[in-house]
Design a protein that fits this description.
Elements (H helix, E strand, L loop, with lengths): L1 H17 L5 H9 L14 H23 L3 H15 L5 H14 L2 H8 L14 H30 L1 H16 L6 H26 L2 H9 L9 H12 L7 H7 L7 H29 L5
Helix pairs in contact: 1-4, 1-7, 2-8, 3-8, 4-8, 5-6, 5-13, 7-8, 7-9, 7-11, 7-13, 8-9, 9-10, 9-11, 9-13, 10-11
Length: about 300
């Protein structure tokens, strides 16, 4: 039944994202402001933030356990569906990518930068990036956001249940929205620990859903060692799995100079398609596990 609940939640969440509705980030932001004030010298402390995500995760896990103990599974499934819809999703990205691609097609790189700078990591905002560097930074941010808000949640929901899915999504929110910026790197390190297995699984999925030979060549270069961050692994894997130099703007501009105006939109479309196919592979894998007798 986990497969059915996740599939329904995923389809509903994608529809909400298309309509730009129901952002879970707003909920986390309001929740975290309960601990906006800390004592001097405690700005790097992780304790308050961890308490704020462990408590709802634990409470939800206990509620699900008791409902299942009393054979009230019919109440568990709608509850998990609702929570998954709130946990997943990245509303706003669709509009951002569309206006960025349109600005790129017009050759207006300043407008393109204006549309996407709020989506980029803090170290890239305000920088005088070249079009190539700007596009790679946006691609990295987009893939990482989709991984955090869909694949990471899907993995831990299937492995550990809805409580663990809440905990992992809470870590993502802490690393991005915790009021005390000094503590965010600590939360980001914890998130990387939880992402270690799923991001490598997604990397392998890229090879299955994309260009397997290109992905294998990328693997042989040694980019997938255990010290790489999640977004680095996603970039290297996607670059090997995509054809047509979709993540190599410099080479694309040399080989196809007349098609440069379409590169921005074409590259982002290729990345979206790769992510969609990868999620389809994950869903098929879950279905195969159910068919083989696994209880998920």
């Amino acid at each position: 039944m986990v497969l059915v609940v996740f599939l329904l939640a995923y389809l509903l969440r994608r529809r909400l994202d298309t309509l730009d509705h129901l952002s879970g980030d707003r909920f986390w932001l309001r929740w975290f402001h309960k601990a906006a004030k800390v004592e001097a010298g405690q700005e790097q402390s992780l304790r308050s933030g961890l308490v704020l995500i462990v408590l709802p995760a634990l409470l939800l896990g206990v509620v699900v356990y008791f409902l299942q103990s009393y054979r009230l599974e019919l109440l568990v499934y709608p509850l998990e569906l609702l929570v998954l819809v709130l946990l997943m999703g990245a509303p706003g990205w669709r509009h951002t990518l569309r206006v960025y691609a349109e600005a790129w097609r017009r050759g207006d790189m300043q407008a393109a930068w204006h549309h996407v700078q709020h989506r980029l990591p803090a170290e890239d905002r305000g920088a005088a990036l070249s079009p190539d560097a700007m596009h790679l930074a946006l691609s990295r941010a987009f893939m990482h956001a989709m991984f955090q808000r869909f694949f990471l949640i899907a993995f831990w929901y299937v492995v550990g249940g809805i409580g663990l899915a809440v905990l992992v999504r809470g870590l993502v929110a802490l690393s991005e929205q915790w009021p005390q910026a000094a503590a965010r790197p600590g939360f980001r390190r914890l998130e990387e620990v939880m992402a270690w297995i799923p991001v490598r699984l997604l990397s392998m999925t890229f090879g299955i859903a994309g260009d397997l030979s290109g992905w294998l060549r990328e693997i042989r270069t040694g980019h997938h060692d255990g010290k790489k961050s999640s977004d680095d692994i996603l970039m290297f894997s996607a670059n090997g799995s995509l054809t047509g130099y979709a993540l190599d703007p410099e080479r694309f501009s040399r080989i196809h100079p007349n098609e440069w105006v379409d590169f921005g939109g074409r590259s982002l479309s290729a990345i979206r398609d790769l992510l969609n196919r990868s999620m389809l592979v994950w869903i098929c894998l879950m279905a195969l596990l159910v068919i083989s007798g696994w209880t998920i």
